[in-house]
Design a protein that fits this description.
single chain; 200 residues; mainly alpha; EMB1417-like
C-alpha cells in the first residue's frame, strides 16, 4: 500500500514557496470582458478599387488615346506604374470589354504592349490577338502570327486556331489557302494519330 510520508511542515513550506506574480503590467484587463477591439491598420486603405473598376478606367484611358504607339505605350506604362505586380487580371478584363465593344485596334495595341512586358504569353491571348488582327483587316500580320504559333507549337496547337484561320480565308474569299490549310490539317492529324498509335 502506498502512502504519502511527507511531513506536514514540509508540505506547507513547499506550498508557501510558490509565488504568483500579480504585477499589473503582466495582465490585460478588458472592461467589456470580450475580445479587444481591432483598429484598422494605417498602411491599408479602406477605399479599395476592384479589378472591374480598374479595367473600366483602363478602357476609358485607352479609348482617349491616338493610334501613336509611343503615346499608347506611355499611357499604359503610367497606368501600372504604382502596381507592385503586373495587373494581369485587370488587363484581361479590359480586353474582354474592348472585345465586346469591337475595339479591335485598341485590343491589338494593349496585347502587343502586354507581350512587350513579357506578360500574357498564353494561347488565349494569342487567339484574341489573331481574331483582332483578322477583324481589323490586317491579314498579313494574322498569317505571320499563325505561322509563328504553329511552328512553335507543332503538336499542341489547338484546333480552334485552325478553325479560325479557315474562317478567315473563307470570309476573305481566299479559297485556295483555305483548302490548303484543310488538306494540311488532315495530313497532320493523320500523322499524329499514326505516331501515337505506334508509341501507345
Amino acid at each position: 500500500m502506498l502512502c504519502c510520508r511527507y511531513a506536514l511542515p514540509l508540505v506547507t513550506k513547499r506550498l508557501g514557496s510558490v509565488q504568483i506574480n500579480q504585477r499589473p503590467r503582466n495582465t490585460v484587463v478588458c472592461a467589456a470582458k470580450g475580445p479587444r477591439p481591432r483598429y484598422p491598420r494605417v498602411w491599408k486603405s479602406r477605399n479599395r478599387i476592384g479589378t472591374v473598376s480598374k479595367s473600366a478606367k483602363l478602357v476609358t484611358c485607352v479609348k482617349q488615346l491616338s493610334n501613336v504607339k509611343e503615346e499608347v505605350y506611355g499611357a499604359l506604362d503610367s497606368f501600372i506604374a504604382w502596381e507592385l505586380e503586373f495587373p494581369l487580371i485587370t488587363v484581361k478584363k479590359a480586353l474582354k470589354i474592348l472585345q465586346n465593344e469591337q475595339e479591335w485596334k485598341r485590343i491589338i495595341q494593349v496585347i502587343k504592349w502586354m507581350l512587350s512586358k513579357g506578360q500574357g504569353r498564353t494561347m488565349g491571348t494569342s487567339f484574341t490577338l489573331l481574331n483582332a488582327l483578322a477583324e481589323d483587316g490586317r491579314l498579313e500580320e494574322a498569317e505571320e502570327l499563325w505561322v509563328k504559333l504553329f511552328s512553335d507549337n507543332l503538336e499542341s496547337t489547338p484546333r480552334i486556331f485552325f478553325d479560325k484561320m479557315i474562317s478567315i480565308y473563307y470570309h476573305k474569299d481566299m479559297h485556295e489557302k483555305m483548302f490548303e490549310l484543310c488538306f494540311f490539317f488532315a495530313i497532320l492529324f493523320k500523322t499524329l494519330m499514326q505516331y501515337h498509335n505506334l508509341n501507345g
